[in-house]
Design goal:
D-Amino Acid Oxidase, Chain A, domain 2; eleven-stranded mixed β-sheet; FAD/NAD(P)-binding domain; binds flavin-adenine dinucleotide; eight-stranded mixed β-sheet; alpha+beta
């Protein structure tokens, strides 16, 4: 049986010459519509003395805009299905100006909402498949602790979804993870399969696999505009124009700007600068779990074990930082007040770390008002974003979802929850 894109793909591929990257090419002449090199669409030259060639117009089945975690995962998923895909990145691959750089991210099943627990279960399978395909470890299972009142809600959701978990007493926490300071009489939720995603390594692996399976990856190539035109999309870069049957916009912090004018209603996204700090373990041999500190409302401090080349145990607060325009970046300035706050937290809660700290890093969040992602399609545009500081753990799964949307399939999660038109994204 042929793939859903195949008949269209054969049409687009037959109407132009191939680039070295395998995409079909047509030539745009000044004052004319695209003219395939093979002359399939026969148009006479516009100007006397021959047409002035102003840009190459490529036709691809799917264009993906943004090669962070989500775009790289989408390109890999599409390429794995044999779909011709072109992935654009405005900066260099693996750059540190967006949301996906650095050594580590938490992978956890624990969440107060069973919808996200179920997604994490599916994501766990996607991570295993990715690691097998990449031939390298990309998710290190360290076990994870959840502390504070929200841990009770997490335990309920884990139980509802049949995910392994148990409660550790203060003494059990101390015996197992001596670096974590449980308070007298406190119990913490333990989830053995929680772990750490090797962030930068994962993004690189996704790009490598996408390329292996035929994707073209173009770095240093900002997409300047996306314009739906009936059943296709025109993408403009400084070098050329590309028409795609579908464009998947995974531009992270830059998505709102790029989508303005391209959608009936552009999603309301807030970009914030986040700061993390690394601390040295006093005993390098001591085991470290991930730790999430759930305060009475929402999630706050978290710690990530030093695996995968991280300079130390990462400690940060999941509290949106100052809102910024991503176009004004890079945002590399370190706020000493936040460094002090992190050191105070370490003194209070993590006696196994040296509060002097090693280094700090910044990164961007792209927040939605309800902290749910955007996974939706409008006409020939698919949007994957609004990752709200918690999407890394779902990366390979979201890539599959977005690839599915690009191919006209539905996603196996409540569509309205992740919709572009939900009130949290449209109310001004
Ligand atoms: C400090 C911090 C800690 C986090 N911790 C965790 C965690 O522990 N667990 C977890 O699950 N998640 C965590 N996250 C969240 C996770 O890292 C993000 O949700 C995820 O990386 C988002 O990826 P993205 O691809 O949407 O965005 P990005 O990585 O920003 O990628 C978007 C890409 O699009 C490119 N782009 C934008 N516009 C254009 C254009 N016009 N043309 C071409 N390219 C363009 C950008 O340059 C960028 O490379 C954390 C995030 C931060 C910042």
């Amino acid at each position: 049986m042929s793939a859903p894109w195949q008949s269209h793909d054969q049409r687009t591929l037959s109407c132009g010459a191939s680039t070295p990257e395998g995409n079909s090419v047509t030539i745009r002449h000044k004052d004319e519509k695209a003219v395939p090199r093979d002359g399939a669409s026969r148009r006479s030259p516009a100007a006397p003395g021959g047409p002035a060639i102003v840009a190459a117009v490529e036709r691809v089945e799917v264009a993906v805009v943004g090669a962070g975690l989500i775009g790289s995962a989408t390109a890999r998923a599409l390429a794995a299905r044999g779909v011709p895909v072109l992935l654009f990145e405005q900066f260099g691959l693996g750059h540190d100006r967006g949301s996906s750089h650095g050594a580590t991210r938490i992978f956890r099943y624990s969440h107060p909402d069973p919808c996200y627990v179920e997604m994490a279960v599916r994501a766990g399978e996607a991570w295993a498949a990715l690691a097998a395909d990449a031939g390298e470890e990309l998710l290190v299972r360290t076990g994870g602790l959840d502390a504070g009142p929200g841990a009770e809600d997490c335990a309920r959701a884990l139980a509802e979804c049949g995910v392994a978990h148990s409660w550790l007493t203060e003494r059990q926490v101390l015996a197992r993870f001596p670096g974590i300071g449980a308070r007298p009489g406190e119990r913490m939720l333990f989830q053995p399969d929680t772990g750490v995603c090797l962030a930068g390594r994962t993004v690189a692996a996704l790009q490598r696999l996408a390329r292996r399976d035929g994707a073209a990856v173009r770095a240093g190539a900002p997409v300047l505009g996306v314009e739906p035109q009936g059943d296709q999309v025109l993408l403009r870069t400084a070098a050329c124009e590309v028409t795609a049957r579908v464009a998947v916009v995974t531009a992270g912090p830059w998505a709102q700007g790029l989508l303005t004018g391209a959608l009936s209603q552009v999603p309301r996204l807030t970009v914030t600068v986040q700061q993390v700090r690394y601390f040295a373990a006093r005993d390098p041999a001591a085991p470290w779990p991930t730790l999430i500190e759930w305060p009475p409302s929402g999630l706050c401090w978290y710690a990530v074990p030093a695996v995968g080349g991280a300079p130390g145990v990462k400690v940060a607060a999941h509290v949106p930082g100052p809102a910024v325009d991503p176009g004004d970046g890079p945002f590399t300035g370190i706020d000493p007040a936040l460094e002090d706050e992190a050191a105070d937290y370490v003194r209070d809660r993590l006696p196994g770390l040296d509060p002097a700290g090693l280094a700090a890093e910044t990164c961007l969040y792209t927040m939605t008002a309800d902290e749910d992602f955007v996974l939706d399609r409008e006409g020939p545009l698919v949007v994957g974003g609004g990752c709200s500081g918690h999407a890394f753990k779902f990366g390979p799964l979201l890539g599959e979802f977005l690839a599915g949307l690009a191919l006209g399939h539905d996603i196996p999660v409540p569509r309205e929850r992740f919709a572009l038109a939900r009130p949290a994204l449209t109310k001004r």
